[in-house]
Each structure stands twice: as structure tokens, then as C-alpha cells.
């Protein structure tokens, strides 16, 4: 595939197919994977399946489950961490049991390939990518914006890899201004 950061951007885009940015109070966000055709377009855009591959309702349901369960593994994600890590991984691993993979060796490298067809093949490629990014210690670069009204998944390209906000101009600036106002308010009460 592409570079590690390009692959991370693809993963972030997968998570953002459920856009959780709030436009009004209690906004559930916007779901972009509503029909099998939506998933097919997304998988084709990233060349995870071909135009001939079919995507059905079951593939769509599995995609949404995978998106939700693997999102819980994002290092700084405090929004989806219901339950303990063992329970989270148990649900994910049960879902992964429905996938089968094989190895292929070529002259210079090896690859892990999904054995499924259609939409499940594309989801299998996505799982291989997640596996490889975690194995290569790149997974910590996938972050969830710490603004509760945003929760946009982004790729942290900063040197230390500890970014908190999807963008400093919006979410970061709001958080810092809020902290400043709270400090000033507290200072005002201490006089």
C-alpha cells in the first residue's frame, strides 16, 4: 500500500465515516455508511476491493461493528472506553474469528491476505492494515480529538506524537480559551 501516514489517514477516514462532531446539543452525528453501496464506494476508493466485488447488508453490519470495536483501541480515546480493556478486546476478537487469512511470500517480502470475498475481503484488508500498523508501533499516531463535541479521528504527525486536538485552530484554541477563562474566574474569586 502507501506510506505509514497514508495508511493511518485511511484508517482515520474509516472511523470518521461516523462523523461525531456535534452541530447541536445531543447530536448523534452523521453516519456515512447507511447502505451497502456506501461501504462499497469507500472500499473501492481505497482499492480494498475491485468494482466487481459485491457488498451486502451483512458486510455493512460487520463494517460498522469493526469500526466501533477497533475505535476503542485508539490510545487516547476516552469516549468509547465503556468497560475494561479485556471486555473490549473480547468483543473485537470474537468478531475477528469470522475472518480467515493466509500468508503469501514473494522474493523480497511477505503479506497477509484475507480469504473472504466481496466486502468482507475489503474489511479483511483493513484489519491486516490495522494489525501491521500496531505491529510497527505506528498505531499511537491515530488519535481522537479530545474535544467532547468533536471526537474527530486524526493522524498525529507531531514529533512527540501526543496531539490532543484535531486542529489547534478550532478545538485546541477553544480548549485553551476555556482553560484561560476558568483560571481567570478562579483568580477573581481568590482576591
Automatic annotation (TrEMBL):
It comes from the Bacteria. It holds the Pfam family zf-CGNR. InterPro entries: ABATE (IPR010852), ABATE_dom_sf (IPR023286), Znf_CGNR (IPR021005). SUPFAM superfamilies: Jann2411-like. Residues 141-184 form the Zinc finger CGNR domain. Gene3D superfamilies: Jann2411-like domain (1.10.3300.10). This is Zinc finger CGNR domain-containing protein.
Amino acid at each position: 500500500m502507501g506510506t505509514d501516514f497514508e495508511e493511518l489517514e485511511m484508517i482515520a477516514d474509516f472511523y470518521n465515516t461516523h462523523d461525531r462532531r456535534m452541530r447541536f446539543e445531543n447530536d448523534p452525528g452523521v453516519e456515512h455508511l447507511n447502505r451497502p453501496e456506501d461501504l462499497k464506494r469507500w472500499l473501492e476508493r481505497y482499492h480494498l476491493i475491485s468494482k466487481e466485488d459485491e457488498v451486502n447488508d451483512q458486510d455493512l453490519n460487520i463494517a460498522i461493528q469493526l469500526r466501533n470495536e477497533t475505535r476503542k483501541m485508539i490510545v487516547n480515546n476516552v469516549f468509547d472506553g465503556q468497560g475494561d480493556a479485556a471486555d473490549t478486546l473480547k468483543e473485537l476478537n470474537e468478531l475477528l474469528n469470522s475472518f480467515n487469512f493466509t500468508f503469501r511470500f514473494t522474493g523480497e517480502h511477505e503479506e497477509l491476505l484475507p480469504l473472504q470475498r466481496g466486502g468482507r475481503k475489503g474489511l479483511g484488508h483493513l484489519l491486516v492494515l490495522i494489525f501491521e500498523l500496531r505491529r510497527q508501533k505506528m498505531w499511537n499516531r491515530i488519535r481522537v480529538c479530545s474535544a467532547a463535541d468533536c471526537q474527530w479521528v486524526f493522524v498525529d504527525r507531531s514529533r512527540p506524537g501526543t496531539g490532543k486536538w484535531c486542529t489547534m485552530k478550532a478545538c485546541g484554541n477553544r480548549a485553551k480559551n476555556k482553560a484561560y477563562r476558568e483560571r481567570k474566574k478562579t483568580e477573581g474569586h481568590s482576591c
